[in-house]
Amino acid sequence: MGVPLGQEPAEICARHHRPQRGIVRPRSPRDHGLSDEFDRREREMKSVLTVLALIWFGLAAGCGGQESRTGEKAPADTSAVESETSEVSSVASDSVAPVLTYAQRKGKRLYDHYCAVCHGTEGKGDGFNAYNLNPRPRDFTQKEYLARVNRKWLTEVVSQGGRGVKLSTAMPSYEKTLSRRQIEDIVAYLTYLADTGQGNP
User: Fold this and answer.
1) Torsion (CA) 57, 62, 67, 73 in degrees, nearest 10
2) What is the pLDDT of residues 137-150, one digit of tens each?
3) pLDDT band at 105 (very low <50, low <70, confident <90, very high)
4) 23: phi then psi, degrees, rounded to nearest 5
5) pLDDT single digits (tens) 153-183
6) Which domains does the chain have, with CATH numbers?
7) Can you tell me the mean pLDDT for 130-138?
8) Can you tell me the distance from the alpha carbon of 143 to that of 195, in angstroms, rounded to the nearest whole number?
9) Which residues pair with 20 in a beta bridge?
10) What rounded mean pLDDT belongs to the chain?
11) How many angstroms separate the CA atoms of 118 and 133, rounded?
């Protein structure tokens, strides 16, 4: 945009800005008749800033040293807290179960759907329907049992059911319900239960 003919840029600037103590300053919204709107927004902004300042000061005060109920100031030394935290984390890391493999995760989903009603969600033979069955369902958290049998035999038990391997007839056959791969995934999860002694990782 060019300067109109016959006018110097300084004249245009002087027309849009007013001098104040020798300094040229831009016009404010009040100069354009917007003082009510400007005042309202200015009040809103001040109230927002006031609230933010109060929140900040409240947080800053809350983060300072705290006094106990006896009126004594709590120590600033955090070494006791750090040592307790490290003890808790070391205990937690010792009790963390191994991570499930992909096959075991798939097997767990299938186990939860098909097997948990009798064998229990943790594989302890204490499922919802277990109390109606005689003999009771197998406890898969017993390492001794899974040490005596191999995965192939477990796959046959799940596939053919109890009758097919001369066990309890209450154990259904899943060879027509699940694929061979799905049955192998369930067996992979059963070995996880035996290795860790727990379900629901």
Assistant:
1) -70
2) 999 888 888 788 88
3) very high
4) -110, 130
5) 999 999 999 998 998 899 999 999 999 999 9
6) 102-196 (1.10.760.10)
7) 91
8) 7
9) 23
10) 77
11) 8
Residue 84 neighbours by CB under 8 Å, 6+ apart? none
Amino acid at 99: V
- Tally: H helices and E strands in the chain: 8, 2
**Buried b vs exposed e over 101-118: b needs ≥16 C-beta within 10 Å?**
eebbebbbebbeebbbeb
Q: How crowded is residue 140: how many other Cβ atoms within 10 Å of its Cβ?
A: 25
Task: Give the rounded percent of residues in the chain with a pLDDT score beyond 70.
Answer: 61
Residues 33-71 as b/e (b if ≥16 CB within 10 A, e otherwise) read eeeeeeeeeeeeeeeeeeeeeeeeeeeeeeeeeeeeeee
- Whose tokens are 């008749």? That residue is 33
Distance CA 196, CA 201 (A): 10
Distances (CA, A) of 183 to 45, 53, 100: 66, 62, 16
Distance, CA of 104 to CA of 121 (rounded, Å) = 14
* CB 118, CB 135: distance < 8 Å: no
